[in-house]
TrEMBL record:
Function summary: Converts guanine to guanosine monophosphate, and hypoxanthine to inosine monophosphate. Transfers the 5-phosphoribosyl group from 5-phosphoribosylpyrophosphate onto the purine. Plays a central role in the generation of purine nucleotides through the purine salvage pathway.
InterPro entries per record: HGPRT, Hxn_phspho_trans, PRTase-like, PRTase_dom
Pfam families: Pribosyltran (PF00156)
Protein name listed in UniProt: Hypoxanthine phosphoribosyltransferase
NCBIfam families found in the cross-reference section: HGPRTase
Source organism (scientific name): Oncorhynchus kisutch (Coho salmon)
Catalytic activity: GMP + diphosphate = guanine + 5-phospho-alpha-D-ribose 1-diphosphate; IMP + diphosphate = hypoxanthine + 5-phospho-alpha-D-ribose 1-diphosphate
Pathway annotation: Purine metabolism; IMP biosynthesis via salvage pathway; IMP from hypoxanthine: step 1/1
Amino acid sequence: PLSRSPRNRWLKIPDDEKGYELDLFCVPKHYEEDLDRVIIPHGLIMDRTERLARDIVRDMGGHHIVALCVLKGGYKFFSDLLDYIKALNQNCDKSVPLTVDFIRLKSYCNDQSTNSVKVIGGDELSTLTGKNVLIVEDIVETGRTMETLLSLLSECNPKMVKVVSLLVKRTPRGSGYRPDYMGFEVPDWFLVGYALDYNEYFRDLGHICILNEKAKVKYKV
Ligand code: IMP
Ligand code: MG
Protein backbone atom coordinates (compact mmCIF):
# COMPACT_ATOMS: atom_id res chain seq x y z
CA PRO A 1 0.00 0.00 0.00
CA LEU A 2 1.15 3.53 -0.77
CA SER A 3 0.28 5.06 2.57
CA ARG A 4 0.47 2.92 5.63
CA SER A 5 -1.36 4.14 8.67
CA PRO A 6 1.10 5.87 11.06
CA ARG A 7 0.22 3.44 13.83
CA ASN A 8 1.61 0.58 11.77
CA ARG A 9 4.90 2.37 11.27
CA TRP A 10 7.92 2.73 13.48
CA LEU A 11 11.38 4.23 13.54
CA LYS A 12 13.91 1.77 12.19
CA ILE A 13 17.44 1.82 13.63
CA PRO A 14 19.65 0.23 10.95
CA ASP A 15 22.29 -2.45 11.56
CA ASP A 16 25.07 0.00 10.71
CA GLU A 17 23.79 2.62 13.16
CA LYS A 18 26.79 4.14 14.93
CA GLY A 19 24.81 5.89 17.64
CA TYR A 20 26.48 8.67 19.60
CA GLU A 21 29.61 9.01 21.67
CA LEU A 22 28.97 8.67 25.38
CA ASP A 23 30.89 11.88 26.14
CA LEU A 24 28.33 13.95 24.26
CA PHE A 25 25.58 13.08 26.73
CA CYS A 26 25.17 12.75 30.48
CA VAL A 27 25.44 9.21 31.81
CA PRO A 28 25.89 8.15 35.44
CA LYS A 29 29.53 8.03 36.47
CA HIS A 30 29.10 4.45 37.77
CA TYR A 31 28.28 3.21 34.24
CA GLU A 32 30.84 5.16 32.18
CA GLU A 33 33.15 2.16 31.81
CA ASP A 34 30.32 -0.23 30.91
CA LEU A 35 28.77 1.39 27.86
CA ASP A 36 29.93 1.58 24.25
CA ARG A 37 27.60 4.08 22.60
CA VAL A 38 24.30 5.85 23.12
CA ILE A 39 21.86 4.35 20.63
CA ILE A 40 18.60 6.12 21.44
CA PRO A 41 18.96 9.36 23.43
CA HIS A 42 16.31 9.98 26.08
CA GLY A 43 14.84 12.93 24.19
CA LEU A 44 14.19 10.84 21.11
CA ILE A 45 12.49 8.16 23.23
CA MET A 46 10.21 10.86 24.63
CA ASP A 47 9.36 12.35 21.24
CA ARG A 48 8.47 8.98 19.76
CA THR A 49 6.45 8.09 22.89
CA GLU A 50 4.43 11.29 22.51
CA ARG A 51 3.41 10.20 19.02
CA LEU A 52 2.55 6.66 20.15
CA ALA A 53 0.25 8.17 22.79
CA ARG A 54 -1.55 10.13 20.06
CA ASP A 55 -1.97 7.05 17.82
CA ILE A 56 -3.27 4.96 20.72
CA VAL A 57 -5.79 7.55 21.86
CA ARG A 58 -7.02 7.97 18.32
CA ASP A 59 -7.66 4.22 18.00
CA MET A 60 -8.81 3.35 21.51
CA GLY A 61 -10.32 6.69 22.49
CA GLY A 62 -13.93 6.55 23.63
CA HIS A 63 -13.33 3.30 25.49
CA HIS A 64 -12.10 2.93 29.03
CA ILE A 65 -8.49 1.69 28.80
CA VAL A 66 -6.75 -0.50 31.36
CA ALA A 67 -3.03 0.08 30.80
CA LEU A 68 -1.17 -3.05 31.87
CA CYS A 69 2.50 -2.45 32.65
CA VAL A 70 4.85 -5.38 32.16
CA LEU A 71 7.37 -5.03 35.00
CA LYS A 72 10.08 -4.35 35.56
CA GLY A 73 11.45 -3.25 32.18
CA GLY A 74 8.28 -1.50 31.08
CA TYR A 75 7.94 0.93 33.96
CA LYS A 76 9.68 3.97 32.46
CA PHE A 77 7.95 3.69 29.12
CA PHE A 78 4.64 3.01 30.87
CA SER A 79 4.94 6.07 33.05
CA ASP A 80 6.01 8.40 30.22
CA LEU A 81 3.42 7.02 27.78
CA LEU A 82 0.66 7.52 30.34
CA ASP A 83 1.82 11.07 31.00
CA TYR A 84 1.42 11.83 27.30
CA ILE A 85 -2.00 10.14 27.19
CA LYS A 86 -3.00 12.21 30.25
CA ALA A 87 -1.85 15.38 28.50
CA LEU A 88 -4.03 14.52 25.50
CA ASN A 89 -6.98 13.82 27.80
CA GLN A 90 -6.54 17.22 29.39
CA ASN A 91 -6.25 19.15 26.17
CA CYS A 92 -8.52 17.45 23.62
CA ASP A 93 -12.27 17.35 23.06
CA LYS A 94 -12.12 13.58 23.13
CA SER A 95 -10.82 11.93 26.28
CA VAL A 96 -10.46 8.38 27.50
CA PRO A 97 -10.67 7.12 31.11
CA LEU A 98 -7.52 5.33 32.08
CA THR A 99 -6.83 2.88 34.88
CA VAL A 100 -3.62 0.99 35.52
CA ASP A 101 -2.57 -2.51 36.34
CA PHE A 102 0.77 -4.28 36.70
CA ILE A 103 2.15 -7.71 35.95
CA ARG A 104 5.65 -8.97 36.58
CA LEU A 105 7.25 -11.38 34.12
CA LYS A 106 10.75 -12.77 34.01
CA SER A 107 12.39 -14.58 31.09
CA TYR A 108 15.96 -13.33 31.00
CA CYS A 109 19.22 -14.40 32.61
CA ASN A 110 22.42 -12.50 31.69
CA ASP A 111 21.91 -11.49 28.04
CA GLN A 112 19.97 -14.60 27.03
CA SER A 113 16.25 -15.11 26.76
CA THR A 114 15.37 -18.35 28.58
CA ASN A 115 12.64 -20.65 27.36
CA SER A 116 10.44 -20.22 30.40
CA VAL A 117 8.41 -17.09 31.02
CA LYS A 118 7.51 -16.76 34.68
CA VAL A 119 4.69 -14.65 36.06
CA ILE A 120 5.98 -13.42 39.41
CA GLY A 121 3.44 -11.07 40.90
CA GLY A 122 0.83 -8.51 39.93
CA ASP A 123 -2.95 -8.35 40.32
CA GLU A 124 -5.27 -11.18 39.42
CA LEU A 125 -5.63 -11.13 35.63
CA SER A 126 -9.33 -11.90 36.10
CA THR A 127 -9.90 -8.21 36.91
CA LEU A 128 -9.36 -7.59 33.17
CA THR A 129 -12.46 -9.49 32.07
CA GLY A 130 -14.53 -7.36 29.70
CA LYS A 131 -11.97 -4.53 29.64
CA ASN A 132 -10.04 -2.85 26.86
CA VAL A 133 -6.48 -3.70 27.75
CA LEU A 134 -3.36 -1.93 26.53
CA ILE A 135 -0.28 -4.01 27.34
CA VAL A 136 2.81 -1.82 27.71
CA GLU A 137 6.13 -3.60 27.17
CA ASP A 138 9.73 -2.43 26.88
CA ILE A 139 11.08 -4.75 24.21
CA VAL A 140 9.94 -7.70 22.10
CA GLU A 141 12.72 -10.05 21.09
CA THR A 142 11.65 -13.66 20.38
CA GLY A 143 8.04 -12.66 21.07
CA ARG A 144 7.67 -15.51 23.56
CA THR A 145 6.99 -13.28 26.56
CA MET A 146 4.20 -11.46 24.76
CA GLU A 147 2.67 -14.62 23.28
CA THR A 148 2.64 -16.19 26.76
CA LEU A 149 1.03 -13.13 28.31
CA LEU A 150 -1.54 -12.86 25.51
CA SER A 151 -2.58 -16.47 25.94
CA LEU A 152 -2.86 -16.05 29.73
CA LEU A 153 -4.92 -12.92 29.19
CA SER A 154 -7.26 -14.50 26.64
CA GLU A 155 -8.40 -16.96 29.31
CA CYS A 156 -9.86 -13.96 31.18
CA ASN A 157 -11.89 -12.76 28.17
CA PRO A 158 -10.95 -9.10 27.92
CA LYS A 159 -13.04 -7.08 25.43
CA MET A 160 -10.02 -5.87 23.47
CA VAL A 161 -6.27 -6.29 23.81
CA LYS A 162 -3.67 -4.07 22.17
CA VAL A 163 0.07 -4.23 22.70
CA VAL A 164 2.51 -1.34 22.57
CA SER A 165 6.22 -2.06 22.78
CA LEU A 166 8.84 0.67 22.83
CA LEU A 167 11.35 -1.57 21.03
CA VAL A 168 11.20 -4.58 18.74
CA LYS A 169 14.40 -6.45 17.94
CA ARG A 170 15.23 -7.73 14.45
CA THR A 171 16.34 -11.23 15.24
CA PRO A 172 16.30 -14.64 13.53
CA ARG A 173 15.12 -16.03 16.89
CA GLY A 174 11.85 -14.13 16.51
CA SER A 175 8.54 -15.98 16.35
CA GLY A 176 7.13 -13.45 13.88
CA TYR A 177 5.00 -11.82 16.58
CA ARG A 178 4.50 -8.06 16.07
CA PRO A 179 2.89 -5.70 18.60
CA ASP A 180 0.06 -3.38 17.50
CA TYR A 181 2.21 -0.31 18.15
CA MET A 182 5.97 -0.07 18.26
CA GLY A 183 8.35 2.78 18.90
CA PHE A 184 11.61 1.61 17.35
CA GLU A 185 12.86 -1.45 15.50
CA VAL A 186 16.40 -2.17 16.70
CA PRO A 187 19.27 -4.42 15.53
CA ASP A 188 20.01 -7.70 17.28
CA TRP A 189 22.00 -6.04 20.08
CA PHE A 190 21.65 -6.27 23.82
CA LEU A 191 20.43 -2.85 24.92
CA VAL A 192 20.22 -1.28 28.37
CA GLY A 193 18.87 1.91 29.90
CA TYR A 194 15.47 3.56 30.25
CA ALA A 195 14.46 0.65 32.54
CA LEU A 196 15.95 -2.06 30.30
CA ASP A 197 18.37 -3.97 32.48
CA TYR A 198 21.26 -6.38 32.51
CA ASN A 199 20.78 -8.49 35.65
CA GLU A 200 18.97 -5.54 37.27
CA TYR A 201 21.65 -2.95 36.48
CA PHE A 202 21.26 0.02 34.08
CA ARG A 203 17.62 0.75 34.81
CA ASP A 204 18.93 3.99 36.32
CA LEU A 205 20.27 5.21 32.96
CA GLY A 206 18.21 7.64 30.88
CA HIS A 207 19.38 6.79 27.36
CA ILE A 208 19.21 3.45 25.60
CA CYS A 209 22.80 2.26 25.12
CA ILE A 210 24.89 -0.72 24.04
CA LEU A 211 26.60 -2.60 26.81
CA ASN A 212 30.24 -3.51 26.18
CA GLU A 213 31.61 -7.03 26.52
CA LYS A 214 33.58 -6.18 29.67
CA ALA A 215 30.39 -5.10 31.41
CA LYS A 216 28.63 -8.33 30.45
CA VAL A 217 31.29 -10.20 32.42
CA LYS A 218 31.37 -7.66 35.26
CA TYR A 219 27.63 -7.94 36.00
CA LYS A 220 27.21 -11.63 35.13
CA VAL A 221 25.32 -13.80 37.61
P1 IMP B 1 11.15 -12.23 24.38
O1 IMP B 1 10.29 -13.11 25.20
O2 IMP B 1 12.32 -12.97 23.78
O3 IMP B 1 10.39 -11.44 23.34
O4 IMP B 1 11.88 -11.22 25.34
C1 IMP B 1 11.25 -10.17 25.86
C2 IMP B 1 11.83 -9.78 27.22
O5 IMP B 1 13.24 -10.02 27.31
C3 IMP B 1 11.66 -8.31 27.39
O6 IMP B 1 10.48 -8.04 28.08
C4 IMP B 1 12.89 -7.88 28.15
O7 IMP B 1 12.60 -7.90 29.51
C5 IMP B 1 13.93 -8.90 27.84
N1 IMP B 1 14.89 -8.40 26.80
C6 IMP B 1 14.95 -8.76 25.51
N2 IMP B 1 15.95 -8.13 24.86
C7 IMP B 1 16.52 -7.31 25.76
C8 IMP B 1 17.61 -6.35 25.68
O8 IMP B 1 18.25 -6.10 24.64
N3 IMP B 1 17.90 -5.70 26.84
C9 IMP B 1 17.23 -5.92 28.00
N4 IMP B 1 16.21 -6.78 28.12
C10 IMP B 1 15.85 -7.47 27.01
MG1 MG C 1 10.08 -6.82 29.59
